[in-house]
Amino acid sequence: MDNKEMKDSDMYKAGEIKGQTQEKPGREFKMEPEPIYDNKTHMGYGRLKDKVAIITGGDSGIGRAVAVAYAKEGANLVIVYNIADKDANDTKSIIESYNGKVLLIKGDIGNSKFAEKIIDRTIKEYGKLDILINNAAEQHPQQGIQYITDEQLESTFKTNIFGMFYLTRAAIPYLSEGSSIINTSSITAYRGDSTLIDYSSSKGAVTSFTRSLALNLAEKKIRVNQIAPGPIWTPLIPSTFDKASVEIFGENTPLKRPGQPVELAEAYVFLASDGATYISGQTIHINGGEVVNG
C-alpha cells in the first residue's frame, strides 16, 4: 500500500498480514505491508491552523498518522522519538510534502530532564504550545507475571505513564484556555490481556491519569481526553509478538481485521479542534467494534 488513497475496501484483512518479527523497537519501513498512515483523498480544513502540537512516538504507527493529519490541518509539529531515525526522517519528509513545519527531538521520554528539554526546544522554536499528544508506549508480552522482571516492569511504566506525567507536568505552564491534551490508552486498560499484564496496568494508569487531570485542569479550561485503540497495525506488533500471533492479528475483532493508523487520526484531530470544546475527561474507543466498559 503506497498511502496514495485510502478507502474502506483497501484496509488490510488480518489474513493478508504476513507472519513476521522484528527486533525491538520495530521499524515501520520494515513492515509488510507497511501501515496506512495517510488518506490522500482528504486534504484538511485548517482546523488546527497555526496550532503547535507535540506528538510523542510521532515517528511511526499511530503517531505518524496523527502527525500527517495535523500537518494537513495547518498545525506546526514537534515529533518526539527514541531510536528509529529513518522512520522519524521519513515522517518529517511526509509532513514537509504538505508544507508543514516540523521539529524532530530524539530521546527517552522516561527521563524527566528530557521532558523538560522537549518543552524548552518547542517554546524556543515556536514560541508557544497548544496541543500535547502523549502517545509513545512499549510492551513486552510474557506468559505469566513470574516472567516480568523488575527491569521490564520499570521500563514499561517509565515509558507508558511516567513519561506522560513528566512531559505533561513540564508542559502545563505553557498551556492556556483552549489547549488540549490527548493521551493514548488501550483497550487492554478496560478488558485486560493475559500476556500484557504490565502494559495493561500502565494503560489503566493512563486512563485514571486522563480522568483526574481533566478534573484538575477544568478550571483553566484545558481539556484532557484519551483514545483507547484496539489492535492497530503498527511497528509495536511485529517487534513484540511471534509470527503466528502476527499472522492472525486483529481477527478476533467484530470487523475481523486490525485497524490502520490512519483510522485513528481523525479522532485526534477532532479532540484537539474547536469541534470538541465541551469534551473533557472522555475516551474514544477505536477497536473494530468491541464494546468495552467505560
Describe the structure.
- The mean pLDDT is 90.
- The chain is an alpha/beta fold and 294 residues long.
- A 7-stranded parallel beta sheet has the order 3-2-1-4-5-6-7, sandwiched between helices.
- Helix 1 runs parallel beside helix 2, helix 1 packs across helix 8 and helix 4 runs parallel beside helix 6.
- Helix 2 links the parallel strand 2 and strand 3.
- It starts with 51 loop residues before the first strand and ends in an 8-residue tail after the last strand.
- The protein has one domain: Rossmann fold, CATH 3.40.50.720.
- It contains 8 helices and 7 strands, in the order βαβαβαβαβααβααβ.
- Keywords: Oxidoreductase.
- InterPro entries: NAD(P)-bd_dom_sf (IPR036291), Sc_DH/Rdtase_CS (IPR020904), SDR_fam (IPR002347).
Briefly characterize the structure:
This protein is α/β, with parallel strands linked by helices and 294 residues long. The protein has helices at residues 61-72, 85-97, 112-126, 150-171, 188-191, 197-217, 243-247, 262-272, and strands spanning 52-56, 76-81, 102-106, 131-134, 180-184, 223-229, 283-286.
